[in-house]
Amino acid sequence: MKRHACRSLILILVLIALTPLGTCAETRSITRTPLPVSPARQTVEIVVGVPNPEVYPSGKARASLAKDAQLTAEARDIYANFLARGSEFYLYGDDFLAGNYGYDAEKCAFIVNLARQITAGCSTAAEKIRAVASYASDKIYYDYDYYEGRKPDVHYDPYACLYYGYTVCGGYAMSVEALLQAVGVPCGYVSAPNHAFNIAWDGRRWLLFDTTWCSYNVYRNGQKQYGGYSLDTWYDYTFEFGLTQYNHIVSGMPLTIVNGKLKQYP
């Protein structure tokens, strides 16, 4: 009996020694915090089915759709026509807010004063663009209550977006356009399939940027959830890089404003 007992004990000790340490991991509670995902990126993954370009930086993220070639060709034509005009053509002037949005003096002053506060200390157009892009990405929240169908409408115009602090991509783009125009920087609203972003003149060249995709802030169930922002990928990206993402294939460039009156695409 003692001999059998010793053999059993030895066998148990050998099995314990051979057991991988990793098998104990299943008894631990490991919590991994997922990386923040902006509302627009979720739109790309869910609606369009295109992987996040930050995960697939090679630029091959877009699905091979039959209509891609046509969309890309149209985008190149639109962009070329836009570049053919001088930057001063897209500086809309003091009548822009009143003429385009019908704002009274109080609402116009709100946006102008805010734009001046944001860009205080900026000496160049490039500095103003970055300051406004940072502000919009940091202070405005993506309205998931509207996106997920819990309410029927959303704030789009710049005053409402900046006053209440939440909107969707079109509101981000309109707000940025209004703020930069208010401090004398040519800037416009750019449309793409299911999306909108901005282009602005930094004094030397046109700069594309998307404050919706830079922001990680979420407005859900009537509450603001701060997630911060990053200008690493979607600030000052190239037109060619935008073509690798369905939501950034340009379909409309800045609208022409003459004497404060909204006209057609140039």
Order of helices and strands: HHHHHHEHHEHEEEHEEEHEE
What is the helix tally? 11
Shape: globular
Determine the mean pLDDT: 77
Main beta sheet strand tally, sense and closure: 4 strands, mixed
Weakly predicted, low-confidence segments: 1-66
Strand order of the largest sheet: 2-1-6-7
**DSSP strand (E) fraction?**
5-15%
The helix content, as a percent range, equals 40-55%
**Which radius of gyration do the C-alpha atoms yield?**
26 Å
Per DSSP E runs of 2 or more residues, the count of β-strands stands at 10
Task: Explain this structure.
This protein is an alpha+beta fold and 266 residues long. Helices cover 42% and strands 13% of the residues. The chain contains 11 helices and 10 strands. Strands 2-1-6-7 form a 4-stranded mixed beta sheet. The chain has a 4-stranded antiparallel beta sheet with strand order 3-4-5-8. Strand 4 and strand 5 form a beta hairpin. The protein is globular. The chain starts with a helix and ends with a strand.
Compact summary:
The chain is α+β, with helices and mostly antiparallel strands and 266 residues long. The protein has helices spanning 2-18, 39-48, 68-83, 96-101, 105-118, 125-139, 144-147, 158-164, 169-182, 211-214, 239-242; strands at 141-143, 166-167, 187-192, 195-201, 206-209, 218-220, 223-225, 235-237, 257-258, 261-262.
